[in-house]
Amino acid sequence: MSRRADVRAIFFDAGNTLVRMNFAAVADRLCALGVTVTTDALIRAERRARVRLDEGHLARSTSSTETRSTQDAYLRYVLDEVGIVDDALVTALAGWRRDYNVPVGLWELAEPNAEPALALARAAGLRTTVISNSNGSIRSSLTSLGLARHLELVIDSFEVGVEKPDPRIFRLGLDRMQLGPAQAVYVGDMYSIDVRGARAVGIDAILLDPEGCWGERDCLVAADVLSAVRLVVERYSAGTVTNG
């Protein structure tokens, strides 16, 4: 479909978009439990695990992305991707994760390209907002990581009482920014949560897929958040855009 572009803002997911998990801490804990796994191996495993979570656990249930069952399934998928399937070990690591750095948890590092991406968006005249499924801690996390200063608005699902992919949280972002759907693009890492959720209210979306784990999808794809912002700046500022 082709239309005249009038994009004025980028709405960002937080986890795996602007903020990443501390997999070095996970690797250290696994080492203490007698298993050696590198941080890089865990990062690659997570990229495959998020697809499995999206197409498996979340597809089979109406569970929130923030519930214990979803978080445990996510961790189990990551560990399975590096060959860790022992139930006792998985259970031990899940318990450690729940007690780690509460309430932020493992989501305590900035994505390497997060700040350059936000700075590029602002330099290009685009407004920037985060719409995130979270437990009420994402604003403080973004502040501590130095990213909040690049953001006009942060919407945390815990605070507003509705979470992605519910269209209401995306409409809330549009309303608070006083924008129409065609004036925003959403960038996130989960197809059913981010892409389908944004599209439900008419917002175009870009799926982050660093290693091609999602396969062919009917949306724009970028390797990381900086590439996604560049795509918005180049593609949507050209006047007419074509989407699959």
Structure description:
By secondary structure, this protein is an alpha/beta fold. It folds into two domains: 2-19 and 108-242, Rossmann fold; 22-99, DNA polymerase, domain 1 (Orthogonal Bundle). Helices cover 46% and strands 15% of the residues. It has helices spanning 23-32, 39-60, 68-81, 87-99, 114-123, 138-144, 157-160, 167-177, 191-199, 225-236; strands at residues 2-4, 9-12, 19-20, 109-110, 127-132, 153-156, 184-188, 204-208, 220-222, 240-242. The strands form three sheets. Strands 6-5-2-7-8-9 form a six-stranded parallel beta sheet, sandwiched between helices. Strand 7 (184-188), helix 9 and strand 8 form a beta-alpha-beta unit. Helix 2 crosses helix 3 (68-81) and helix 5 packs parallel to helix 10 (225-236). The protein is globular, with a radius of gyration of 18 Å. The termini are close together. The relative contact order is 0.19. The model is unreliable at 239-244 (pLDDT under 50).
Which structural traits does this protein have?
DNA polymerase, domain 1; Rossmann fold; alpha/beta
Q: What fraction strand? A: 15-25%
CATH topology of the largest domain: Rossmann fold
Poorly predicted parts: 239-244
CATH superfamily of the largest domain: HAD superfamily/HAD-like
Number of domains: 2
